[in-house]
Sequence to fold (176 residues):
Amino acid sequence: VNYHFGSKEALIHAVFARRLEPLTRERLRRLTAAEAEADGAAPCLESVIEAFVAPTLRLIQDPAHGGRDFIRLMGRLHIDPGELGFAIHEQFDKTLARFVEALGRALPRLPRAELLWRFVFMVGSMAFILPGSELLKRKSEGLCDPSDVEGSIRRLIAFTAAGLRAPLPDPTGGTP
Fold:
């Protein structure tokens, strides 16, 4: 490991880069298509969300790019990143900026700070179902089946779009 990569951390970075680069390309390809479909107008909110979450969830079905094991590891890094996770997250910085910008165009009434909070909630919702799919199936006694990737994507898009469109919180702490 040290001969080829210099350290164990460098090896882990290389493994993640190999898996994340195709994911990033696919996300950006989908986002570009959603923006082109809008033809200069604000992109469709659901299309922007789909461009972000669908490629990640579909990795579960792709053993050539890590499949379920890699997705579980990604979910854990989102939930409890540690120093290594923070370094790996840096690979996402430009992609995240593009998505936040697109969400801002789709939701122009949201102040930037609120948009960033809601983006983090979107990522958190996605990250939670990555490593914990068996727990959800067990706790729901089979009513919820996260192995239905396309159904999970549809539900996550609908949930996230509703949250992104929600009214701004009342700054006084009351109910909006």
About this structure: The radius of gyration is 17 Å. The chain has a mean pLDDT of 82. The first helix runs from residue 2 to 5. Residues 1 and 7 are 6 Å apart (CA to CA).
